[in-house]
Amino acid sequence: MSALNELKKIKSKTNRRLGQGHGSGRVKTSGRGTKGQKSRNKVPIYFEGGGLPLIKRLPFHRGKGKNKVFKKKPIGINVKVLNLLKKDSVVDIKALVENNIVVKDDAKTYGVKILGDGELTISLIVKLPVTKGAEKKILKAGGHVERDTPEVSNKIGK
């Protein structure tokens, strides 16, 4: 036989019923205090007492650089990760997706750039944008970098 404090809970707590008469202990104002806007109805969290709201006080954002925060940066892939590929293979987004190095949708949206961290032990033909450090390591390993315009080489299906 189990102790009382070890019994399974079989009933969940119900919501408090408000305004149910004097015997309930929650009469008349139903726990909302007295008078005022908050006692009568719900007030939105963004309500600022009838003054001009913050969102309307801010200036308009116009012009070329208004969404710099949302600018899409390419996915960085380090040179050491490229050792997973076969020797003398072509490195483009399609190859990276097939070898599960990048996710297809992200690569299509943001593009891919090869960064210079780590060592490369195999020669590869890279058809993606690269940093200067990454280019040196690719050339040192016996591969080469084909320079296209980033818009063309950085999209899947082209």
Write a compact overview of the structure shown:
By secondary structure, this protein is of the alpha/beta class. The protein has six helices and five strands, in the order H-H-E-E-H-H-E-E-H-E-H.
Which properties best describe this structure?
2 domains; elongated; single chain; 6 helices; Ribosomal Protein L15, Chain: K, domain 2; 158 residues; three-stranded parallel sheet; two-stranded parallel sheet
Give an overview of the whole structure.
With 158 residues, the chain is α/β, with parallel strands linked by helices. The chain folds into two domains: 22-47 and 53-57, no CATH class; 72-153, Ribosomal Protein L15, Chain: K, domain 2. Helices cover 22% and strands 9% of the residues. It has six helices and five strands, in the order H-H-E-E-H-H-E-E-H-E-H. The protein has helices at residues 37-40, 54-57, 93-98, 104-110, 132-140, 150-153, and strands at 75-78, 90-91, 112-115, 125-126, 144-145. A three-stranded parallel β-sheet has the order 2-4-5. Helix 5 (132-140) links the parallel strand 4 (125-126) and strand 5. The longest helix is centred in the last third of the chain and has 9 residues, at 132-140. It is elongated. The termini are far apart.
N- and C-termini, Cα separation: 73 Å
Kindly name the structural category: alpha/beta
Average pLDDT value? 86
Sheet with the most strands, sense and barrel status: 3 strands, parallel
CATH names the topology of the largest domain as Ribosomal Protein L15, Chain: K, domain 2
